[in-house]
Every structure is written in C-alpha cells, then in structure tokens.
Amino acid sequence: MLPYSYRITKYDPADRNEHGHYIGDQEPVSDHGPIEAAYLQTVAAFAASTGVTSVAIREPGLVSSFVHFGLEPVAEGHGLTGLFPSDLAGFHDGAEVPVGLGLELVRAMLRDSGVFCSLEVEDRFAVHIGWDQYMYISSAEPCHDAVARAAELGLFPEAVDASPYEGAFEEPGEQRPADADFWAHLRRTLLHREAAILEESHLQNVSRWHRLSSDNLDTVRAGLAPRARLTVWPDLSRDVAVDVTVAATLAELSEDDIVEVVWEDQDGRIVSAIVDDSEFAELSTRLAQARAIAVLPLAEDDRHPLFAAVLPDPDGVLRARWRTVQTDSDRAWAVMKTLRRGQRVTGTVVKIATFGVTFVDIGGVTAMINLPELSWRPFHDPAEVVKEGQVITAEILDVDMDREQVPLSLRAVQPDPLQQLARQAGLADQAGSAGLTVTGTVTKLVPIGAFVRIEDRLDGFVGLLPTDQAGGLQVGEQVVVRIARIDVERRQIFLARDADSDLH
User: Fold this and answer.
1) Bigger pLDDT: 470 vs 441
2) DSSP 251
C-alpha cells in the first residue's frame, strides 16, 4: 500500500450533508471542458512530482451491454479509438504506456466512455477513476506541489488512508498459472477429448474463443494476449440440431435470465453473445446456420469449465492480479502444489473400485492406492486390508501435476513382515542355513511341493520329501518347518523339513 493517497474531486467538501453526501450543484458527469482538463493536469502534476514518465495499465476492461452504471452513453470504440489499434493490441494488463496516453485513458474514464482500468507504477504511483468523477491518486511521495496544483486548478484534494480500489483484486488462495504443467495437462486433455474450447479473457467483460486440438494448440497459445485469463470448456455440442438445442434451452429460461451463448459460425469462428429474454428470438435467427453451440449460464455456481489459469509473464512470474473462478481441477491443483514425494498424509477411503484401486480423499485431492501398495502381505480382495470410510495414513509415491494423480502407498508406512521374519530367523542377509523352526499349515499343493502358512498371510514354499511320495502332504495339515531362505525383493520364503537340504 502506498503511503500517500488523495481523493480528488470537483466537489467542495463544504457542500456535504451530515452523512458525507455531496449536495452541491456540480453535475456527476464530465464537462468535456475546463474541469475535465483540471483533472488531467492534476494527474500529470502528481506523475511529475513522483518522477513517473510511463504507467502500466492494470485490470483493463470494457463495460458490458447489460451493466453500465455511467451517466453518459458508452462511446463508439469505448473511448479507445485512435489510442490503440482496432483489435486493441497493446491494451492489456501490464502494458506500459507513456503518461500522455495514460491521460487520454483517464479522459475516456471520466467521460464514462466504456473503458476502465487503473494506471500504476509498482510501489510508486497509482491512479484510480471511480464513479461520479471521483479520482484517487496514490504515491510513494507526499507530492505537496501536486496537491497545491490541484487546488489551484479548482479541484478539492483530500488526504485519505487509501484508495478504495487498491487491493480490489487481492483475493485469498493461490491462482493457478498457465505454466508448463497447465499446458501439459491441457494437451493430455485434448488427447482424450480430441477437442476443447478455450476462452481467452484478455479484458474484463471481453473474451475471445478458440477451438483447440492437438494440432493447433501451439499456434493458439502463441497468439494469446499477455496475462489473459484462460478457461477451458468442453467442446461445443454437435450431436443435436442447433435449432432444437437453442429452442429447448431458451424455453427453460425465465424472463429475468441472462445467458451467454457460444457458437461456431459457418466460417468456423467461435463467437459468443450475452443475451436476455428480449433477444432470444433474434438470437435464434442468427444461429440458424451455426455448426455447434453451447449455452452457458452467467452465475458462477452454474458454470462448469474443465479448468482455468492465468498467463504468467515471459519470465514465468504470475503478476496479473485478477483471478479465474476455481474449478474442481484448479482446487485439486492448489492442494497438489503443497504435496511432496515421500510425504505422509492422512485421508479417508472413499471408494474401492472393482478393478482393485483404492481411492482416498486427502483433503481436496482424490489419491489412489494400487493393489501392490496396499499391504506387504498377500491378499485376495482389497477389502481385506481397508474399508470405505476408514481413515488411513499413507506415503506419497509421486505427484503427477500433468495427469493430476497422486499415487499412495499404505504398506510404505508399515513394517515389512518379511524383513522382520528374516531378522527373527537369523537371516538378515537373506541367506543362511540355521533358520528359525516354526509350525505352519499347508495351504496349497503343487507337483513339487507345498505352500505352508507360517504367519498371517505369509506363505512359504517347502519341497517334497521322499517319504511324501506315497501319501504326500494334505491341505490343512500342520507341519514343522525351518525357514531356510527369505528373498525380500521377490517376496519369497523357502522352507525346509527334516531330511531337506537348504534351498539356495
């Protein structure tokens, strides 16, 4: 926050009532004349006093056709005609412009022309134009000469704690950047979906739309405006006739509903329009030749994009302050950024899939445990190890930001029973001839021997003795065996009985 802030208006503080509201005779619109010029000269005086010769455009936007609180009608070109090219190249967040061009932007905002932004120099200077000709200037310097100049020009500068517009875009939580992980995830999404729609919001209330495929992703990416907000949507519907889709969707809307309709025209361009019920009939006519369409509600809770991000600067730093609406994917990303391989996490088992994978909620991310990582001991069904609703602690094996996957290991946080058995049997080096003698139960017969359970879900192999050939061992039979060798890596236990030789 800059230490010196001033509210500068044409309204005499003496003409305020007991509630602080202005009751004088000044109109809350620009006079397009000497008072407007006084505002511009005041901004120039503060810039000169601070030593500023250029400013950065921050959070720029254009008023929408549905929300315009200004008292003057929106100007053609939103007041930007002659200041920027027709495609508004160079008018984006972070664009640096000379103070002179900044003053023309201030003029357009004072006239309610339809453009809005703030003008700033980081940690030094800021200009915010509010409603009804209220202007706020903040500086790292007290700018006593500029304050005097404003008064000399007939304006009324008042010191305030801060501009009410300062920090307007500072929201809690971490914004997802469109970094290498984002683009890798998007590319993988396209492999599965074949196509998707990218909404490029380079200005507030203004979007450009792109159909993405694996073939054109790099080309589209190269043409995006700096610091744009990016929202990825499912591809437009092509399965149902457009006129039927539009009619059915619009018929469900009430008189007060406003929706955004996105469609692909005959030339393959993706365009959109925000309309209310009074424009539905006209819109249906415009869409008669559309190839594909989607109707999006404006309420954030009803919009369901796949994921979203904001473009960082070329050096990889995210300096844009505006935010995207978080999707489930973005919330998962925010959690995954805090996770590390080898970290132990606690979560709740939410599902045991029919194919054996166990899914665990670890606080906003659904991680997974593959069958081999559930237990050191053999099992036939994951339900023998975990139950749905059970709270467990597991170790993170990897954090795959591209696939948005977090594999866990439950057995990694448990002692390995084979290692323990090897130590008990005096076979810590997995080789030896002494071994521990135990009693076990035959669980399975094979032509050359049998498997004997010597501990809970730990079976070892024992070969047949010559005396076994006539009758042999029987499943369920209790036998005394010696642990001859344990191969921890292959998860194998070799057993021996009297007259057996050790197995190597």
Assistant:
1) 441
2) H
Q: What is the residue-wise DSSP string for 156-186?
A: EEEEESS-TTTTTT--SSPPPB--HHHHHHH
The domains of the chain are located at: 4-160, 180-310, 338-413, 417-496
The predicted-structure confidence for 177-212, as pLDDT tens digits, reads as follows 999 999 999 999 998 887 899 999 999 999 999 999
| 392, 360 Cβ separation under 8 angstroms | yes
Burial (CB count <10 Å: 0-12, 13-18, 19+), residue 20: exposed
Tokens of 402: 């591209």
Q: How deeply is 104 buried, as exposed, middle or buried, from its count of CB atoms within 10 A (0-12, 13-18, 19+)?
A: middle
3-state secondary structure labels for all residues of 315-344: CCCCCCCCCCCCCHHHHHHHHHCCCCCCCE
Q: Can you state the percent helix, strand and coil of the chain, rounding each to 5?
A: 25, 30, 45
pTM for the predicted model, two decimal places: 0.79
pLDDT of res. 261: 85
Which neighbouring-strand residues pair with 482?
Answer: 437, 496
Q: Residue 88 and residue 108: Cα distance in Å, rounded? A: 15
Helix 34-50 / helix 144-152 crossing angle, nearest 10 deg: 170
pLDDT in tens, 265-278: 888 889 888 877 67
Decide: 313 and 319 in contact? Cβ < 8 Å.
Answer: yes
What are the structure tokens assigned to 59, written together? 């959070």
CATH class label, 338-413: mainly beta
Instruction: Give the containing element (helix H, strand E) for 42.
Output: helix 34-50
Looking at residue 468, its pLDDT comes to 62
Cα dihedral 82, 87, 91, 93, rounded to 10, equals 170
Q: Encoding tokens for residue 50?
A: 């601070």
DSSP-derived secondary structure for 269-333: -EEEEEEEGGGHHHHHHHGGG-SEEEEEESSGGG---SEEEEPPPTTS-------PPP-HHHHHH
d(CA 156, CA 357): 69
H helix intervals, 54-179: 99-110, 144-152
Give how far Cα 149 sits from Cα of 87, 119, 199, Å.
37, 20, 45
Whole-angstrom distance, CA of residue 310 vs CA of residue 314: 12
417-496 matches 338-413 in CATH topology: yes
In this structure, are residues 333 and 399 in contact, taking their beta carbons and an 8 Å threshold?
Answer: no
Q: Which CATH class is domain 417-496?
A: mainly beta
Cα separation, 252 vs 141, in Å, equals 57
Q: How many CB atoms lie under 10 A from the CB of residue 419?
A: 14
Cβ neighbours for 486, distance < 8 A, ≥ 6 positions apart = 418, 421, 422, 425, 427, 430, 492, 493, 494
